[in-house]
Amino acid sequence: MTSLERHIERLVEDQLSEVRAEVEQLSEDVEEIENFATISLGERRLNQNEANLAEFSASLTEFSEQTLEKVNDLESQLELQTIVLASILESLADADLEVDVSEIRDYQQEQLVTEQSASGNLEAAIDAVES
User: Fold this and answer.
1) Farthest-apart Cα atoms in the chain, separation
2) Domain-by-domain residue ranges, the chain?
């Protein structure tokens, strides 16, 4: 091999080494970009999930508040009706009229949850009618 051939071979080898180093660096850069994109995508998904969860939580809170308001309204109506019924029964007892309260008693037995004060008023009125 002549010196010119060796010189050309050395130049080619040097350039090839530089190209290999550049390709290796580019591969590392691509891998780093892929990792960043994957992390970024994961963060976006996490943020979206957090936003969805917050929206769902707000929706449940609103539903809960509306339901509680409706339950409170129903309880108020029930208490008012119980007071009216107790007043009617007391008036009938004061007028010495006999009243069949068996249906009211049956209704009370079927109820699992009653308000003590309204229920107590009704109980006293029924006792007054029965005596």
Assistant:
1) 138
2) 3-130
